[in-house]
Automatic annotation (TrEMBL):
Belongs to the peptidase S10 family. One of its GO terms (biological process) is proteolysis. This is carboxypeptidase C. Its EC number is 3.4.16.5. It comes from the Eukaryota. Residues 1-16 form the signal peptide. GO terms for molecular function: serine-type carboxypeptidase activity. It comes from Colletotrichum kahawae. The keyword Metal-binding does not apply.
Length: 294
C-alpha cells in the first residue's frame, strides 16, 4: 500500500521494520471515514512507533499524504492534532467523539505519528497559546487535554487500538523536556534542514495564528525569510497578499516555488481547532496549488 511511503520521512525510521496495522475503533470513526492505526516496529523489534492514518475522504489512492507531528518538543500528535485540531473526529467529552466536518483528510491522507509527549509549563495565569484568553489552571490551558488522556487510557480503547494494557498514554512528559534542554538540543539549528528539503523540491507550508504568543507569527515570518535555499531572494522579495473566504479577509500569505507562509487572523496556537473552516480552506488550497490572492 503506497500510503506507507509517507512514513519514510520520519527520522526515527532508520532501518527496515514491520507494521502492526488494524482498523480504528468503530466507536471513534463513526461517519468519519476510513483509517488505520498501529505500530511501526524497527531496530530489531526493540522500538515501536505508534501512528494513526486517516484516509482521504475523496480519493485516497491518488490524494497526497500529509505527515503531522505536533511540536513541543514531544507534544502528542494524536491528542492535539487528531482529537483536538484537524482529525476526522474531535473529542467531545471524556468518552465521546464527534465527526469533524473541517477535517484535513477531506482531500488528503493524514498520518499522525506519535512520540513521548512533553510541553512547557507556565506558572502565570496567562495563556501563551492565545494572549487574548486566560489560563486558569496554569497548565496547557485546554480542557480537552484531560478528556483525551482519559479517553485513550481506557482499557477498552487500548484493546481496540492494539496498545498493551500496561502502556499508559501521557499527553505531557516533562522529563523529556528536561533532557531536551540539558542536552543542548533546544539550541540546535534545524532551519538548514528545511532549506535542503526545499532545494530538493519538497513543498513546505509554514503557518501561524496571529494571536499566538508562544509560536508567534512575527517570529515565524522571520524564520521563513531566513531559510537558505536557492529561491530565498525571490521569496524575500515577494509581498504579502490577502486571502479571503466567503468575502472575509482571513489571513496573509506569500509563496515562492516550494515555500509558502500563511498568517491566520484571530487564531491562536491551535489554528485548526480555533479556525476550522479557514484552516481547511488553507490546507486544501495549498495542496492543490491554488493558494492565490482573492
Amino acid at each position: 500500500m503506497k500510503l506507507w511511503g509517507g512514513l519514510a520521512v520520519v527520522p526515527a525510521i532508520a532501518a527496515a521494520g514491520t507494521f502492526q496495522v488494524r482498523d480504528p475503533p468503530a466507536s471513534v470513526y463513526a461517519s468519519a471515514g476510513r483509517g488505520h492505526v498501529g505500530y511501526y516496529d524497527f531496530d530489531n523489534d526493540t522500538k515501536h512507533l505508534f501512528f494513526w492514518l486517516a484516509e482521504s475522504r475523496s480519493d485516497p489512492a491518488n490524494d497526497p499524504v500529509v505527515l503531522w507531528m505536533s511540536g513541543g518538543p514531544g507534544a502528542s500528535s494524536v491528542a492535539f492534532g487528531l482529537f483536538q485540531e484537524l482529525g476526522p473526529c474531535l473529542i467531545n467529552g471524556a468518552n465521546a467523539t464527534i465527526p469533524n466536518p473541517y477535517a484535513w483528510n477531506n482531500n488528503a491522507n493524514i498520518i499522525f505519528v506519535e512520540k513521548r509527549s512533553v510541553y512547557f509549563i507556565f506558572d502565570e495565569h496567562l495563556n501563551p497559546y492565545d494572549f487574548r484568553k486566560p489560563c486558569p489552571d496554569g497548565g496547557l490551558c485546554y480542557e480537552e487535554a484531560d478528556w483525551i488522556a482519559g479517553y485513550l487510557n481506557s482499557s477498552s480503547m487500548k484493546l481496540e487500538l492494539g496498545v498493551p494494557e500496561d502502556v499508559a498514554f501521557n499527553i505531557i512528559d516533562y522529563e523529556l523536556g528536561q533532557y531536551f534542554d540539558q542536552s543542548g538540543d533546544v539550541s540546535f539549528d534545524t532551519v538548514s534542514w528545511a532549506g535542503e528539503l526545499l532545494d530538493k523540491g519538497y513543498k513546505v507550508l509554514v503557518y501561524a495564528g496571529n494571536k499566538d504568543w508562544f509560536c508567534n507569527s512575527a517570529g515565524e515570518k522571520n524564520l521563513v525569510h531566513n531559510i537558505r535555499w536557492r529561491h530565498q531572494p525571490a521569496f524575500q522579495a515577494q509581498d504579502f497578499q490577502t486571502y479571503t473566504l466567503d468575502g472575509k479577509r482571513i489571513g496573509l500569505f506569500k509563496e515562492e516555488k516550494a515555500l509558502s507562509f500563511a498568517e491566520i487572523f484571530d487564531a491562536g496556537h491551535m489554528v485548526p481547532a480555533e479556525k476550522s473552516k479557514e484552516s481547511l480552506f488553507l490546507i486544501t488550497s495549498w495542496i492543490k496549488g491554488e493558494l492565490t490572492s482573492t
